[in-house]
């Protein structure tokens, strides 16, 4: 039983990976995502390995997952992959408060983000 299999949303030469609920603001995550957009995957992995941003390790794991999906699930060649898209979305925001002077409260927001990485196989230039 169960529902019928849905059509594949991406073209045959693309694969993606999604990381949800990353504990970082979307603005900070987008700085790291923009670092890898349009690059070859080996260059992007090297950039993320030596990045000093805390969230770069999670972005690297997501990129490695997208590469593994491309290789194992879709039979794409790893050497010809580029990062075609890396986009960030907002998840929820946990609201907390911090006690301030004279009985007041200061609001603290702890944002979460989603990250989607799409890799595409491009033909090697002869």
UniProtKB/TrEMBL annotation:
<dbReference type="InterPro" id="IPR047867">
    <property type="entry name" value="Ribosomal_uL22_bac/org-type"/>
</dbReference>
<dbReference type="GO" id="GO:0019843">
    <property type="term" value="F:rRNA binding"/>
</dbReference>
<dbReference type="GO" id="GO:0022625">
    <property type="term" value="C:cytosolic large ribosomal subunit"/>
</dbReference>
<comment type="similarity">
    <text>Belongs to the universal ribosomal protein uL22 family.</text>
</comment>
<keyword id="KW-0694">RNA-binding</keyword>
<dbReference type="InterPro" id="IPR018260">
    <property type="entry name" value="Ribosomal_uL22_CS"/>
</dbReference>
<comment type="function">
    <text>The globular domain of the protein is located near the polypeptide exit tunnel on the outside of the subunit, while an extended beta-hairpin is found that lines the wall of the exit tunnel in the center of the 70S ribosome.</text>
</comment>
<keyword id="KW-0689">Ribosomal protein</keyword>
<dbReference type="Pfam" id="PF00237">
    <property type="entry name" value="Ribosomal_L22"/>
</dbReference>
<dbReference type="GO" id="GO:0006412">
    <property type="term" value="P:translation"/>
</dbReference>
<keyword id="KW-0687">Ribonucleoprotein</keyword>
<protein>
    <recommendedName>
        <fullName>Large ribosomal subunit protein uL22</fullName>
    </recommendedName>
</protein>
<comment type="subunit">
    <text>Part of the 50S ribosomal subunit.</text>
</comment>
<dbReference type="InterPro" id="IPR001063">
    <property type="entry name" value="Ribosomal_uL22"/>
</dbReference>
<dbReference type="GO" id="GO:0003735">
    <property type="term" value="F:structural constituent of ribosome"/>
</dbReference>
<keyword id="KW-0699">rRNA-binding</keyword>
<dbReference type="InterPro" id="IPR005727">
    <property type="entry name" value="Ribosomal_uL22_bac/chlpt-type"/>
</dbReference>
<dbReference type="InterPro" id="IPR036394">
    <property type="entry name" value="Ribosomal_uL22_sf"/>
</dbReference>
<comment type="function">
    <text>This protein binds specifically to 23S rRNA; its binding is stimulated by other ribosomal proteins, e.g., L4, L17, and L20. It is important during the early stages of 50S assembly. It makes multiple contacts with different domains of the 23S rRNA in the assembled 50S subunit and ribosome.</text>
</comment>
